[in-house]
Amino acid sequence: MPQTLQHHVKVLGSVATSSLTAWRGCMVVEAARAPAKPLVLYDMEGCPYCRRVREALSALHLDADIRPCPKGGTRYRPEAQRLGGKPLFPLLVDPNTDRVMYESADIVSYLFSTYAQRDVPTYYRAWPHQPVLGSLASMARGLRGLRARPARAADQPLHLWSFEGSPYSRLVRERLCELELPYRLHNLGKEHWSEIGPARRRIKAGPYEPIPGGKRARFFEEHQRVQVPFLEDPNTGAALFESAAILDYLDQQYAV
C-alpha cells in the first residue's frame, strides 16, 4: 500500500477514535489559569483513562509535561513508580500544590476545581459507558501508543502543539509515546464555534481570525496560521507541521 494511502487509513482510524470519545478535548470549555510550574503527566497515549485526563487538559487550555510510560518502557516507568508507589497510569504530579494523583476521575475533578474553580462539566464527567467506548476507541487505532519501541533518547524534551480530539495530532502523540520521547504538550484547542473543522476547511468561510488575546492568537502571530500538530525539537532545531512529515522525522531521528 502506498505510503500516502497508509497515512490516510491511519487518519481514518484516528477519526473513529475521536468519534467514539464524542470529540471531547476539541473545544475549550474554559481557559484556565496557567500554573506557575508545569503540570507533569505520566501517560500512555493509547490508555482510555489517560485519554480522559488529556481531554480535560485540552478543555481547560492547560499545558503539561508528558512523560511517556508505554508498556515495556524503561525511561519513565521507574520514576513514576517511585513518585506514586504504584505502576498505574495516569499519574499526575502538580508541583504547584505538591499533589501526586492516580485515578482519572479524581484527576479530572482536581483540574477543573483547582484551575477553573468549577465543577466538572457534564460532558467531561465519568459515566458507566465510558470505559467500554474508551476501549473501543483504543482498538480503533490498533492499540497504538501502548507499547514501547526501541529508540534513542532525546537530551531535551520536544514541544508539541496539539489538542486531544485532533485525529492528526493523535498519530504524533502515539509515536512520541512509543518512542518514550518526553515533550511539553501545548494545548491549542478550538476557542470558538467558527474554528470547528480542519485548518484548511473551517466551518466559517473566509480568512482565519483567532480570538484576540488567546493562545491561538499568539500562535497565529508567530506562524501566520493555526494548525496542529506542530512539533519543535530543540535537540535539532527542527520545526514541522503535517502529521506525516512529523512521523517520518521522529522515525528517522529517534527510532532504532
Short description:
This protein is of the alpha+beta class and 256 residues long. The protein is built from eight helices and eight strands; from the N terminus they run H-E-H-E-H-E-E-H-H-E-H-E-H-E-E-H.
Characterization of the model:
The chain is α+β, with helices and mostly antiparallel strands and 256 residues long. The chain has 8 helices and 8 strands, in the order αβαβαββααβαβαββα. It is globular, with a radius of gyration of 17 Å. It starts with a helix and ends with a helix. The model has no long low-confidence stretch (mean pLDDT 92).
> Average pLDDT across residues?
92
Shape: globular
- Biggest sheet overview: 8 strands, mixed
Number of DSSP E strands: 8
Number of helices: 8
- Portion of residues within helices: 25-40%
Instruction: Measure the end-to-end span.
Output: 23 Å
Strand order of the largest sheet: 4-3-1-2-6-5-7-8
List the uncertain runs: none
Percent range for β-strand residues: 5-15%
User: H/E order of the elements?
Assistant: HEHEHEEHHEHEHEEH
If you compute it from the alpha carbons, what radius of gyration comes out, rounded to the nearest whole angstrom?
17 Å
Query: Which structural category do the helix and sheet elements fall into?
Result: alpha+beta
